[in-house]
Amino acid sequence: MDGSGVNRDIEIGGEPLTVEAVWRLAHGHAPTRLSKAARARVEKSAGHVEALLKRDGVIYGVTTGYGDSCTTEIPPELVTELPLHLTRFHGCGLGRHLSPEETRAVMAVRLATLVHGWSGVTWDLVTLLSDMLRLDILPLIPAEGSVGASGDLTPLSYIAGALAGEREVLFEGARMTSAQAFAKAGLNPITLKPKEALAVMNGTSIMTGLAALAFRRAEALVALSARMTSMSCLALLGNPRHFDERLFEAKPHPGQMAVAASIREDLASFRSDQPLSRLQDRYSIRCAPHVIGVLADMLPTWRAMIETEINSANDNPLFDTETGEPLHGGHFYGGHICFAMDGLKTLVANVADLLDRQFALLVDTRYNNGLPANLSGATGARASINHGLKALQIGASAWTAEALKLTMPASVFSRSTECHNQDKVSMGTIAARDALRVLELTEQVAAAHLVCTTQAVRLRVEQGSLTPALLGPQLTAHLAEMTRRIPKIVEDAPLEGTLRALCADLAAGALQADGRP
Q1: Are residues 193 and 219 in the same domain?
Q2: How many domains does the chain have?
């Protein structure tokens, strides 16, 4: 979306596709179109395959079986049937289906791969896949069943099968076969030509599409966790000098410095009228820039890895764009994405742990510097039967523990599969799914933290310990928006609805660091 609020087309096949472009396509915020240059590249590559077949060339996965079966020669009269068989025997995925947003991200990434002109597919396939994305005809893709090499074969088979009219899709809010959806939309399924099923299926687009979404959510978490640290410091009447610019010039990691600067700006108006309760705040406040900053500092590296993968040709074999010579390699191996997602989930889980520790300080009268137990707003006789955020703190601790448990790196669990042909595999898709689950859990902790800090600062204002002048303009605006979203907790009441609404907005990128949509 540009500054005028107008959704601009995203062109696939022209400029490299960014993480932000994938996010916009995934969330339906932009239409897509294919570049004119892409057509020439794709048709030239398809011509190379056709010419090789006419010369009786041996092409892996075209005139041979797949994987360990590459020594099996396919009779010429059966070559045209082979692609559909590849989609069918891989139709064994399980687990949840990818969400619509995840599916759109995957489709966009696969399109970006195919339009490079290395893969030997026809323009008809590319345009049908583009039309499916444009019209929101979304294959139902099971999330589980890929070891990340030879690419995401099983989950991507649900796209290849859908192109041929054989798999279920979600269209206009209903499940139906892709053939039915195409008929409703005025489209026709294609007959998969030699190499086309392999070109769609043999690559890293599931893990990479998921990684792009995980990256954007992690990026938003950096800004939001800095803001929530500011609110925690304010609520605890902490020491804002922990974020002094001179301190961070002495240890100048750029991301860490940026996080400290954000907190310092938030707390610029905060001056406690009372002597500090502690010269040094506990680590979850004082060291917050150092925890969040590691995530901030790694994001540029991960962006480069993800965007390189998005804009790469990663199936096998590839065809030299000029000569058409088949090039047999291993670009379907998702090691870069796996490493990025293993790292991302670890650092995101550390942020969950940080926020959970801040929450624990705020609800405990031994550490919260005069706030009521569990931040209950009840007073007088009714205070005895009201428990404030006691259970929410338990919930945040549970979500944090689960996030931390999931940080075991997936890459070290390589398995030898497919008759020891795929004897070293990346596990990138599992790492990407882990990263999204860790983000989901961390966003749940963040939602609980927003409830906690909003309640704590409200109580401070009622006590007279904080005034609008001490809050400053940024935290005042944040508090106002959170007050609109989060009820004041006086009498005990269920918070699930409030938490789910906050989590949905966090996951969709609809809740910014200042609290505004």
Answers
A1: no
A2: 2
